[in-house]
Amino acid sequence: MKSRRLDSSFLSAFFGIAIVLIPCMILTSCVEEQQLEELVQETNKEEIEQEIVEPEEPVVALPGLPEDVAGYERWLKLNAEPIPPVAGGDPHNGTKNVYVNQARDTIAPDGEQQFPYPDGSIVVKEAFRPNKDYVGLIAIMRKKAGTDPDHNDWAFIEYTRNDPDADFNVIASGRICWSCHARVEDIDYVFTELD
Ligand code: HEC
After folding, report:
1. In terms of domains, do 90 and 13 share one?
2. Predicted TM-score (pTM) above 0.85
3. Could you tell me if the CB of 141 is within 6 A of ligand 1?
4. Of 88 and 142, which is predicted with more confidence?
């Protein structure tokens, strides 16, 4: 009698626990599965959103300009404020900005600009002609080892256009440029210093 009573109380305890545990286990696994599904959906959504928010924007050069200056407007700008036309005659007539394809830390490691510029540097100056709202002049200095050792290996070239839809054309290059830029030979031929 005693053992039968034990058996039945053991069995009812066992079933009691099982009744509570089994639905719990099913519920937990369902919740986990649901959470997993939500996570997958979330990740997919994020990936899709990223694709929409950050499309690859092709960077193209202004018409007539070489591809290596495409997107120069996103480079480091040396001047903090636009450079106004030089009174009494401006060699690059207009309101100007000067950009370089280097990081601030590279050319000014301790906050102060170091010279010379590294090999491979490209300096681009854009000018808005007086009373015009489009870039009408692009002057470029490219530093390539071996180009012109007598003038710190800079190659100079300038382009202009007189219409916002027109292609740029080369107007001058070489000696005419460095002969004047030699005035600032001590700061590597580049007049505009980093602000
Ligand atoms: C008579 C002097 C003179 C001549 C010639 C000249 N420049 Fe400049 N250039 C300057 C001055 C001054 C600046 C400084 C910014 C400004 O006021 O336009 C300058 C700025 C530049 C800049 C921006 C970097 C810097 O030095 O500040 C580039 C690039 C440039 N010139 C390229 C050329 C090219 C290419 C030619 C030849 C087609 C040329 N320059 C001819 C005087 C001259």
Report:
1. no
2. no
3. yes
4. 142
